[in-house]
Design a protein that fits this description.
Elements lengths: L1 H31 L5 E5 L4 E5 L5 H9 L3 E5 L5 E4 L1 H7 L20 H14 L1 E9 L5 E13 L2 E10 L1 H48 L2 H31 L8 E4 H15 L4 E5 L5 E4 L1 H17 L6 E9 L2 E8 L33 H11 L3 E7 L3 E9 L3
Parallel strand pairs: 9-11
Antiparallel strand pairs: 1-2, 3-4, 3-7, 5-6, 6-7, 8-10, 11-12, 12-14, 13-14
Helix pairs in contact: 5-6, 6-9, 7-8, 8-9
Bound molecules: adenosine-5'-triphosphate and magnesium ion.
Magnesium ion binds next to helix 8.
């Protein structure tokens, strides 16, 4: 009887132990996955609280949220901790990462290198190297591994930061291409300047001679050539200006001048060249402003040029000025093709041109408005556009009055 009871007791004892083993497995698993914040251990005379998370919770959150993969490995290359980002880079679930051999996740071709990096890190305290990871979906990731030894409790471990270099490499390449383009533009425009100036000189001389001889046909033709050369000159000027603006080398004059006088001057000048449009104007009482007269004039010329260029078949261009409080504003209105709403803010960007069937038929570099906005910004003003496709556009700027 007593014997039977012992047997039953043994059975239940075994059952109890089994449950305990399963439980501790679950607990270890939870700790490994970082699901446990703290646990309490009963000692002979008290309860002791062991915190896993709370003490360094902010660091964990920080490491979880960083854009780099972060992990620690022990001396057997087993991953003790990994953030979600590292698992994301590998494209495997986090629970298939922690507890496994780090080197096994590295591509075959780089395993030797990675082993060397780890060895070097144990010896020197830190090491760095690049590997390329090809994922199943055909994604190729260049990765930078930065290793450091760290003290973890009583033992040492290695922490590894994994940086995805693909974005960096892409933007480096983009920057290189842009630099090349800029360099080309700046050299080309510089080299064009001298011959164009010389051509202009000869054309003017020839024209003068033909006029003197009474050969009006030839003189008129040369007049047209001269107009085209002027366009070319202003184009080259734009390119050189952009270069200087970007290097902060563009010189601005400081002078006080009559705003309306300048506006009238530009209207007359542009009307001479623009034959299919008639420039109307409505000017407020004249005011003095401070700044670079030529450059502000250049902005108005750009506005009028655009108004004429982008309103074929329409005749009117309206220039208006207004003074409100301490500012003067100028607007140029046309009744042409207009600009779609989603592109309006972009027209002031360097080299930006509206894309579309209609728009593609006009020549230009997309620099006029970029230069204009830089000039106006430098004078403490701002540029604006209002436009409706099919109805036309109003470009305007505001400048502070001189006091
Ligand atoms: N008045 C306007 N009406 C319609 N679209 C315009 C008007 N002004 C500018 N745009 C659009 O904005 C773009 C940028 O204008 P911007 O003057 O900077 O360059 P561009 O005229 O193309 O060339 P350029 O450098 O010779 O001036 C133009 O390409 C055009 O698409
Ligand atoms: Mg333009």
């Amino acid at each position: 009887m007593e014997k039977m009871q012992t047997y039953d007791q043994l059975l239940s004892r075994i059952e109890e132990l089994e449950t305990q083993v399963t439980e501790s497995h679950e607990i270890i698993d939870a700790i490994r996955k970082g699901e446990v914040d703290a646990f309490i251990v009963k000692t002979n005379d008290a309860h002791e609280l062991y915190t896993l998370r709370s003490a360094d919770k902010s660091y964990r959150v920080f490491i979880e949220q960083m854009n780099e993969g972060a992990l620690t490995i022990n001396e057997n290359n087993i991953i003790l901790y990994s953030n979600t980002r590292f698992a994301g880079l590998l494209n495997v679930p986090l629970e298939n990462v922690i507890g496994f051999d780090f080197t096994k996740f590295m591509p075959q071709a780089f395993r030797l290198l990675v082993t060397k990096l780890i060895k070097a890190c144990w010896e020197k305290g830190e090491s760095k190297g690049e590997v390329v990871l090809s994922r199943k979906e055909g994604i190729v990731l260049p990765l930078l591994l930065s290793m450091n030894t760290i003290q973890m409790g009583g033992s040492k471990a290695i922490s590894i930061i994994v940086t995805d270099l693909s974005l960096q490499k892409e933007s480096q390449q983009h920057k290189k291409a842009m630099d090349k383009k800029d360099e080309f533009i700046s050299i080309a425009s510089h080299e064009l300047k001298t011959p164009v100036t010389s051509i202009k000189g000869y054309v003017q001389l020839l024209r003068y001679n033909f006029e003197k001889e009474g050969n009006t046909v030839a003189a008129e033709m040369l007049g047209k050539v001269d107009t085209q050369i002027n366009k070319l000159t202003s184009l080259i000027g734009d390119l050189l200006d952009v270069k200087k603006m970007e290097n902060g080398q563009l010189q601005y004059q400081q002078e006080s001048f009559d705003f309306n006088e300048l506006v009238m001057e530009i209207i007359e000048e542009t009307q001479r060249v623009i034959v299919n449009h008639s420039i109307k104007y409505k000017l407020a009482e004249t005011k003095m402003i401070n700044g670079d007269r030529n450059k502000i004039g250049q902005v108005l010329t750009n506005f009028i040029d655009n108004a004429a260029k982008y309103s074929p078949g329409k005749t009117d261009i309206v220039v208006a000025t207004k003074t409100v409080d301490n500012t003067v504003s100028l607007s140029v209105q046309d009744f042409g093709i207009g600009i779609p709403a989603d592109q309006q803010s972009k027209v002031f960007e360097r080299f930006f041109r509206v894309n579309g069937e209609k728009e593609n038929t006009y020549a230009g570099l997309g620099l006029g408005l970029y230069i204009s906005s830089e000039i106006i910004k430098r004078h403490g003003g701002n540029l604006q556009v209002q436009s409706k496709p099919g109805n036309g556009s109003v470009f305007s700027f505001e400048l502070p009055l001189s006091h």
